[in-house]
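To: structure subgroup
Subject: Chain for Friday's discussion

All,

I'm putting the inputs and outputs inline so they're searchable in the archive.
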Amino acid sequence: MKTIIETTSPAETFEAGRQLGCLAKPGDIYTLSGDLGVGKTVFTQGVANGLGVQEHVNSPTFTIVQIYDSGRLAFYHFDVYRIGDAEEMDEIGYEEYFFGEGVCMIEWAELIDELIPPQAKKISIEKNLEKGFDYRKITIE
């Protein structure tokens, strides 16, 4: 099933993520794709908020994974942009996160496609400047 959400401000993009976080269940895995500056971090902050995460959420570009455990479920935010080889994921013990009881959000997941479980939900965020600077089309499959 495909869901399309259109937003016209960062606040609406955050809210779309928050709603997803409120519905998230243990073991949910989401992949998140979109160009730089499209709002992936804002959406992810919304998901974390919906999970009840208290800490500030930012992109874990240099650490690969940030762990937030102050919410109703643990939240694992991956940014695999700097991964050179999927084997690097073994070094951080990705399976513990992917197959645990928390919720995973994986940015740039296409770089480790062979490791992504088939039940993962794919999320893409796209801009369309013809519809406005802050317009975003969020597709969840």
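Points worth raising on Friday:
The CA atoms of residues 8 and 135 lie 4 Å apart.
The helical segments are 10-23, 40-50, 87-91, 94-98.

D.
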